Amino acid sequence: MSQWTATRIADHIHFFLRGTRLILVSNREPYIHRWDRQALLEPVSKEPAASDTGRWNFDWVLQVASRVSQLLRSGEGIRWTHAAGGLTSALDPVMQACHGTWVAWGSGNADRETVDAKDRVQVPPNNPQYTLRRVWLSEPQVRGFYYGFANSALWPLCHLHLERTLFKPLHWRHYQEVNEHFAETVAQECQDQPATVWVQDYQLALCPQYLRRRLPDLSIMHFWHIPWPPWELYRVCPWRRELLEGLLGNDLLGFHLEQYCQNFLHCAERVLGASVDLKAGVVEYEGRETWVRPFPISIDYDWWAGLAHQRRVTRRLTQLRTKAELAFPIIGLGVDRLDYTKGIVSRFQAIERFLEKYPDYQGRFCFMQIAVPSRTQIDDYRQVKEQVEMLVEHINSRFGTDTCKPIHYRYEHLEPPELVVYYRIADFAMVSSLHDGMNLVAKEFVASQVERKGVLICSEFAGASEELDNALLINPYDVESVADTLKQAIEMSPEERTQRMTRLQEHISEHNIFKWLAEIFTELERIQGERPVAAPASLESRPSSAAALQRP
Ligand code: F6P
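# 6-O-phosphono-beta-D-fructofuranose complex -> structure
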């Protein structure tokens, strides 16, 4: 068990902050409010909307109108959900422990109805612990900034899918504009008081520089949740200088892996001509230093394990096992945002090959795929969805019957209490990312293994594989060997399963999200301790970079 708990990290961070505020900034918000259509129509749904002759039933219309207006006024028809994705699920427990302010895009269709006059709402909605400050984006901004530059240029670039990158000047302008907007909102939240600002991810690469211009002495750090590409690929970006300059507004920049840090440092050196110390992990550019460090993110292990142990989870598990579609001796599991980087197509190709090569398993094996809808307005995402669904149909018609299908596919977002039931029911889980910053599903699966009988199959190209050497590692491009690894996982002895899972659990319970956080804040404190108290020194007035940049 880790020495780092929610309480301990809260104390640690409060000490570090010394009465100043923590402001976390991300594109995605942790809690989304949406109108619940069902609730709006339920009380009147039994009335016929029109008579037999086709005329409108005015009583019905009046009832609907008055119900809708009552619900709009009272906010009763609003539901909240957690956002999908590793970033928010990892950082929400952190903010609950530290009670700061989280600034994020208000993307839910009922988000405006739930904020106060200053666009703030207290969250979690059922047990408020911190403030969520929502930022509003216009439709063209969402298209240009979010679907455009962030997810059609930076995302594929950082995940090494050059053929999918789309570099449009209009998208770039929106990206700049939205980053300015975020910086302005954060500056307002700082209220000219000292604060530590923690920016998240690739949607906000320019925000640190824009903030630095407004508040030069602010303590700013950034965590980049996806890979950073090697220079040979990064250089294709038309705004390669601007993005690097944006990020060099930070005091500390974190990546999951040392490899991504090295890639970034090379880019800063080659693109900007910055002075870089690869060994120490520091860039000096225009009189400022930015430290670049690896911090592999994790999960709130105890929270997931606690959830998995709940009695209602065990009850639901027993119910599910009797359901026809899951009544198979062997159950595999995949949980992913429906994204081309997750390698879902190659996973299914390997499953098909497995059933073909080892026919004894036909009829005895079922793979449960939970595909979470994501970025559905982007063509590449629609295409991969079509491809995945065609493959599911193909495999099910090739190896299944009307009542028994080898692939059980759900296209929806599941909240943790339901997700954890699937984590527990599975004999193995498969992460087959083609390239992935970390992948927290792998870690959640491990934390939820109450009986320690599940096997984790993990792609070598997911950051998580560096820590999880007791998983079965795969190269998702090698379909034949993945099919064999499936067999190995299924046939693994109970002793070996328990042994591997125990080691994985020991590692993740020790290296939990709070330890990750402690390491980041300790590093920031060290940097601040080293930094001269006066305003940023010019290059000339500093000691030579080699001497100044030694690791302690
Ligand atoms: O971890 C990468 C990431 O893009 C996060 O920034 C994001 O919150 C998550 O995946 C989900 O993606 P999106 O916010 O585009 O739904």
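# post-check
Residues 169-190 form the longest helix (22 residues).
Confidence is low (pLDDT under 50) at residues 533-552.
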